[in-house]
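Quick illustration, no need to memorize.
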Amino acid sequence: MSQAPARSSRRHLPALALASAALLAGVPSPVLAQKVEVPIASADRKPSPLPEGERIELTLQQAIALALRNALDLDVASYGYEKAAFSLGSAQGIFDAALSAELTAQRNETPPVRSLQATDSRSQTGNIFVGGLLPWGTTYEAGWTNRRNDSPSVGTELIPGYIEINPTYSSSLSASIVQPLLRDFGKLVSTRLIVQSRIARDQAAWSFVSAVQTTIQTVENAYWDLLYANENLKAKTEALERAKDLNRITKIKIDVGALAPIEIVQTEVTIAQREQEIIVAEGLIGDAQDRLKRILNVKGEVEWDRPIVPADKPVMETREFDVEAGIQRALELRPEVKQAVVDIESKKVSLAYNRNQLKPRLDLSAGYGLSGVGYNKTLEGPEGGYVSRDYMDALYQIRDADYPGWNVGLSFSVPILNRTAKGNVAVAATDLELSRTNLTILKQNLQLEVRAAARAVDTAKRSVVAAKKSRELAERNLDAEKKKYENGMTTSFQVSQIQNDLTAARTGELQAILGYTRSVVAWHRAVGDLLEVKGVDLQGLPVPTGATPPEEGALR
């Protein structure tokens, strides 16, 4: 009977105490069975239901896959990307040609003040124009105009031999261009908004990548938090069983007269404390369940009431974490760095554009046109014949280029002082230097983050070793104290205190093991390869091209 407490102490080792042995033995991380595909478009990311059953048993990879399909935070990031993509499409519309057409009819009646003046004028017009902007800043317009004019004159019957041509039809084709030669010249100026919109889209895409990494880290931490809460409850339950064993032994000793009756009070106090700790531990499980379910975007009261049971145990990666290599990978992979780099390119475009606006305006304009006229009238021709001209004659004249016309010109203007453009250049230059400085600060912070993550992994690994040793010593100490208690060499109070020490040691071991898993996730997040490690494949992600910086001295 005296050996029962010792057997109970060994029988109820928590599951994570066994996991610590795997950690210290260097069990490698499991290879992911399949990749998790995550479309960047919200419409392509279909929500996934939770597994069926009274309890939801989830592996870590299943939890990650569910979170990446269901998390509302990723929907927000997707909408941000889609909004930026739509804005890019809108910016590309700057080169869309505009087609316009007009039909008008007009009549004016005026009193005559002299002979041959038209008093009743009627006209109808039908015009079509197309125009737009070309990448080098050229604006163009082409048009086809048509007009029918009916304006009979007063008093023509009093003039012998007078022939009035009425109505008349006129038509013309014309094309014109305006090419800036200084201000607003060049592709970079014309495509500025497109380039910056593309950069904004790429930044939104990298924001989505960052959101995916955050979701993975959050769901994994929540998964391990739930596992810790479950194992913590087991540890508290084992502590209660030990307290009850001590209470039972104390009662036996009191019954045989080996102890004073007052000794039972301390054991009952310990039992009450353990029961209170179990109540708190059960509340922690509920909180951890809710946090994980919130990330998984659980819907419906039934789903919220079904408990999630983690099916995985934490394991340790055997490889060493190279700090310098990690820093280099972070500078290459971290989405924050890519966002900062393309932001600098956007600022370069703004600076080049504003420098261009310092120049005076010198525009070359050119135009060419063909016109024709026709009328409904039969006339005697120069050879004695008769000709009948109508609207088709006007079109034939255009076709044959009978009446061409052209124009070429230069226009020049320069603002006095030009303080607005100078101020804009100063602001753009300052913004560029600010972005460069922010990138430098970001790189420094990333180095600190990677170094801190590496230290955290090393510290957590050593903490697991120390916590395991502390737990083993606490178990041995409790066994020894129980033997002393059975031989009347110590008090129930001292045994209860050592039981408290064992409970704290086991809880500390749980925290150390899960602290290690969190530190590994934080390392991969700091390095930027968390998606690769977790087998996440982002689909529909555009290749960030950024903007091509202008050559030195260009557009100055």
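The domain at 15-87+200-346+423-539 is CATH 1.20.1600.10 (Outer membrane efflux proteins (OEP)).
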